[in-house]
Each structure stands twice: as C-alpha cells, then as structure tokens.
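Minutes, project check-in
Item: structure for the 93-residue chain
Input as provided by the requester:
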Amino acid sequence: MPQVIEVRPFLSLTPYCGAGNRIDAYYKDEYRTLINKNWSEIGDMQTGEGKETYTINGLTLKSGYTYYVRMGAKVRDTYEKFNYSEIEVIKVP
C-alpha cells in the first residue's frame, strides 16, 4: 500500500463533494493533517480500518446552510489523488 500523505476535509453546498467541487474557504492547509506514514502503521490491512483518529478543528459553518462533507486521504503514488470517505450531511440551524 502507498504511504498516506495527508487527510483533509472537503465541504460543499451540493451532494457532489471532493477536490473538484468544494468550498475553497475550507480548502486551506490549516485544516489538513499531515500523516506521512505507511498504511500498515495507521491501519489494519485485513479490514481496511484505521487505527488512529484525526480531528479537524476550527471549521466555522454558517447558520442556515446545509453542508455536504467528506474526508479525503491523499496517498503517495503516481497520481497523488484523494481517496474519499462517504459524504455526511450537516444542517446548521
């Protein structure tokens, strides 16, 4: 498995959420977590589940909006693209 470089959140106002469709204000380095570890160090190769939990703090969401959110993990390979989590919906009252 390739090395995991970083994880970061992707937020959108539509159900299509990722590197190509995101709110740029939340795509800042201050919201990412640098990992730089092999998957075997941070996850279980048999189940695909991670052994560590990462917290992203400081995301200020606007009242009255519905956000579509997912996390992306960038891996060190030829393309260095993100692998994404499922999308979660956050409704801010």
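Outcome recorded: The two ends are 41 Å apart (CA to CA).
No further action items on this chain.
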